[in-house]
TrEMBL record:
PROSITE patterns noted in UniProt: ADH_IRON_1
Protein name: Iron-containing alcohol dehydrogenase
Domain Fe-containing alcohol dehydrogenase-like C-terminal: 191-378
Keyword Transport: no
Cross-referenced CDD domains: Fe-ADH
Amino acid sequence: MNSFQMFIPTNVHFGEGKLEELPDHVKSFQAERVLLVTDSGLMTTGLIDSIEQLLRNAGVEVEVYADVEPDPSVETVHKVAERFSDMRGDLLLAVGGGSSMDTAKGARIVALQGGHIRDYSGLQAKPIRPNRNIPLIVLPTTAGTGSEVTFFGVFSDWENKVKVTVTSPFLAPNIAIVDPALTRTVPSHITASTGIDVLAHAVETYVSRAANPFSEKLAESAVALVGEHLRTAVFYGENRLARYSMAQASLLAGVAFNHSFLGLTHAIAAAVSGYAHVPHGVAIGLLLPAVMDYNLRANRTKFRVVSRILSGDSAATEQDAPVLVRQLAMDIGIPQHLRDVGVTEDMLDGIAKDSMQSVQLRFNPRPATALDVRALLDGLY
């Protein structure tokens, strides 16, 4: 019976062919110089070249920063901010997955307000002002993070083995152009890891202590879409309906967790990635069934709903939920053991300890201690 507020600051344009509208959106901000933020992998597909040409044909000057890495570092955020300032840019355009979108979000803060991106994270975080002077447009090419609409940016501080999470409604992009056609060539392993992340967003939001009727309905819809379409998207990537549905699921889950936040899966995954450089979606897919099993007793009713949505069986019980998710993860090739993704036994205590620093823990339906997390990690090792 939580009270809640609904706020969706991003203007979303969803559908196949929406990429062609990009010049009109750029011009709506009277932007003449655009910094396009992306990764080296997309540079080989021809997509970035076509976007550059689309904008140049409209009279827009474009520069490209193509060195965003997976789980982007705080250093990359500052390199993009510096590049944007040097070119006297008018608008940031992120094309890619969550890494490119988050990098552009962070760079916009640094370019506008200065300081280090770490300054805007944690309990003593500096306030973030509305970004009226630097518009941000995003074009997601994966269906996973929901970063196209979220209030969050996550960055890797490899030196300190931690994830830096920045949170503010003013972090959200001004415009998200979600064109499912851009996801049809995404490799199967990336489709799998980003897609299981969508499911985790939906499930953790659904059972969150901050859940509300608005976020619950979005989360239920996202669970249904992932359950029906993720396997097809992984194994038959050209399937238009599967890609359309997964893009929709990512969007719905992103809006949902803006309002109700996440939980223990994401808290532990951030620590796992910080210690062993495990890709975020892989860590999430490995952890999610075990965390669901841990959380079952805290909200049996909602986990029963998840079971019935995923199975289509009205007789499914709450105990079926983690089993169904584990089977989905196995089917799409997500590793099942921490040792298989580079986590060593001597890391486990540190991962358990660092998980306790996550703000997501306050929203998890069942309280957890470092000892609880260590036991969970031992079971997955």
